[in-house]
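Aim 2 progress update. The chain analyzed this quarter is reproduced below.
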Amino acid sequence: MNSLVLIDSSQLTADGFEKLSDQIMYPYAVPYDLLKHGSDPRVATCRGKLQNKRSKLNQEINKELRLRAGAENLFKATTNRKLKETVALELSFVNSNLQLLKEQLAELNSSVELYQNDSTEPVMPMIPLGLKETKEIDFREPFKDFILEHYSEDGSQYEDPIAEFMDTRQAMRTPLRDSSGVGLLFQYYNQLYFVERRFFPPDRSLGIYFEWYDSLTGVPSCQRTVAFEKACVLFNMGAVYTQIGTKQDRLASKGLDSAVDSFLRASGTFRYILENFTNAPSMDLGPEMLDMLVQLMLAQARECLFEKLELQSRDRKQDVDVCLDLAQEAAQVSEVYGKVHTLISCQPVKDYVPYSWVCLAQVKREHYTALSHYHTALGVMGARMGDMSAQTRDTLQFLHAEDENKTRLEIRVPQDDDERKLLGRAHLRESLLLHEESQRLHRMCRELRGKAALSGVLKKCHTRALDAYTAAEEEDDFREVLDPPRILREWQHVPFITLESPTIFIASTKFQLSLTPPDFSQYRVEDLFRALGPVAIFSAKHHWTAPRSIQLQRLGGEGFGFSVRGDAPVIVAGVDQGSLADFGGMKEGDFIVAIGDKDVKWFPHEDVVKLIKLAGDSLSLKLVTPMDKNYLKQPKGGPKGSVSTSSSSSSGVSSGQPSPAGSMAAHSHKKLTWNPFRKTSAHGKDSVLDHNVILR
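Predicted structure tokens:
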């Protein structure tokens, strides 16, 4: 049984709030009511401060862009030479300010350490994404005007649903970095499904513009389509997943599992955007950028898997098979970061992303190749030849690729303990060189030099490899002087080749990662504007006449003269010529939207028939006539509607045809059904008609 804990928010510090919010771990379910709130702007967490700085920089960049656009237009329009010189000087100042602001924003985007977990030991940093910022939009007047114009209803009756929708959008601008924040974004995205169909017709605009800032450059983009709004919400969803994964405690197995899950969900979300949205107005939603982000998140997920394997193997460091598994996984991580570096180094992504991202991908590529050589050396040097199984020998044979130039190691599988030690030392030496290369790349990047965690990890691994190499060198030093092996003579005369040569070590993995696309069904929402009717019928792209009221008054046993079919909404299936319904103005295909003062747009067929029956001799209806021809088309293979055998029949029973609302219906065998509104025939027997049973 779940219990609630009451917390005094006034006694909660900023750091305490940040830790408390991070304790709500994905994928535990979150109550629906909790999804309606974003983060508290009064709580000044480090992450919140960073996002606020990003928001202010976005506004400043937008201001400078407008100034530049105005100055450029003035420069083109004027013919005054002195004015042109003044405008040109002003343009140079604006461009300088704009470049400075973009550099400040790039520095903020490089502040990955604020998103990392506060662990006691240094941990390799991950790359999270900041959220796209957007402006507040007032939907009240456009929505109320459209409700009055298109749906012929009083827009003031829908002020509460409109306000709730606006509150949800306002809250999703600042989602929490946990499952409730993800749920809030899902809730808003699912609500957009209904809002788009209710209020955004394909043939005209309501004057509503969705403006979002680029997550990395701060350049604003403005679109009228809801598709742009959806893509930006999905991007923020993926960004929150990256922040959740980055914040996990990767020194524990549970934290690593959560990090892998979050990065795979982020990768799946970016893939979904890439496959379902085109012609992006901003660079962060472009296909090249999204493709790179998919691979980057996959690489970080695989990196977490390697860290988990290392964590589980701490007690079995001397096991040669475990070490070789670690070596293969490290080589696989290096390979995927090599792919990321290839994508991130191509135009236009290279000039768009922070330079620190490019450098970090390089550093990790070299670092994990060094780890693959280090773990291979530990495994080879820690096991004697007699203890190596056939499977271990096959693994070594697979790991070491043949060199066509014969300039590298010729020992692929050691034949004795001497070759085993020499092979191990060669791997240690290569590991040292690659660790030094990763540290050199780290020092060359100004943004990365200040990352203490990254410096600590690189230094720790280099020191560990150096200690192992020194110990191995001291142990075999006398033998090398007396009888230097051929392999060492070759390595002394051949320059070492860096990671770009894939023939040194073949990557492999036992883990197959699959992307996790967004699961929209996990957060179901109720249509806020449900009172307008079934969205399949009463939507912005469909048209119908204004509602008209019909009053039918019958005398004695006279019938109303119409039949109905379907449900939600119920449709007039037929009108008898010369009947009350015909004189009242009812038409075949009309939708019954109200009976008396009761709205029946969502009522099933049985309930509408019951209300008609209870009305007695006086029936008040409100009808609308669809203006789209396809509304009146009968489904293939179905009957044409219930038509009474008596010319004076009243409203008939359903023919079983579903209405265009798409309600669940199924046809069964025909049988005789009593019509509750039918007059008795002249022979005293009830007239009958064909009827298909509706299954609910």
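The mean pLDDT is 76. Residues 330 and 372 are 5 Å apart (CA to CA). These observations will guide the mutagenesis experiments scheduled for the next reporting period.
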